[in-house]
Write a structure and sequence with these properties.
Blueprint: H1 11-31, E1 35-41, H2 51-60, E2 64-70, H3 76-82, E3 87-90, E4 101-116, E5 126-127, E6 137-140, H4 145-154, E7 162-166, H5 169-177, E8 182-186, E9 195-200, E10 205-214, H6 221-232, E11 253-254
Length: about 260
Amino acid sequence: RDLHSFPTRRSSDLTLAASEDALQHAAEYGKKRIAPLRVGFGPGISANIAAAPLMEVAKSVPGLAVELVDAPFDKISSQLLEGSIDAAIANDLNASGCDRFDRWHLFDENLVVLMPSDHPLAAYDVIPHDLLPDAIWLDFAGCDARQLAWARWKGPNVECATIHRAPQAFQLLPLVAAGMGLMLAPQHTPLIDGVVARFVDCLDLWREVSLIAVAGRQHAPSLGALIKTMRAYKWTGRATDRKPSTPANQERVACVA
């Protein structure tokens, strides 16, 4: 048959059919009683800290559907306000618009130096800081901890050259294992084979990790359950373990990492 003799459908018919399909899919989606929960993770925040609380939420919220989202430091605020994430686990927000968010403090944690397990400095339980200034450093986006540490060691006006970078800390772990440099990272960072973590004698950098959501916005049951669970969760003895002592004349420095 002539190709042009086949029956055709008008564009209006196609649009109507697409709309009907969309409505049908939405109805089927609703019947499944899915409870979406989009959680953003700020720089250096590993999903392993949220696994146990999320499991508790799943027990109380039928049909929980969790989506884990990267939340870069300069985009957390907009992601929350636009609704692309329901909540964020992070250590800070940009100064602008901070009064528009609710924060629930979860825990404080120290930063540690990650290095290959066969690195000479791995022989130390606590590394003397004067052995570190000449090291090659790896850096992940949104982390200012290394520069703060460098300012202590070298002075506030001396820039620390970073050779290797990545958006997330976990992406740099294979490079650390390969011996391409050292990295300052949160204490809760899951390590891979060939990487060890060490404290530094005068390095008492730390950060506050919080759960953040938009203030005044009605919470879906899944988000309400997450807030309740994470606020009640016993964080003591987890990422806060093994804090190095702080000399009496040295102030702890909170950082963005």
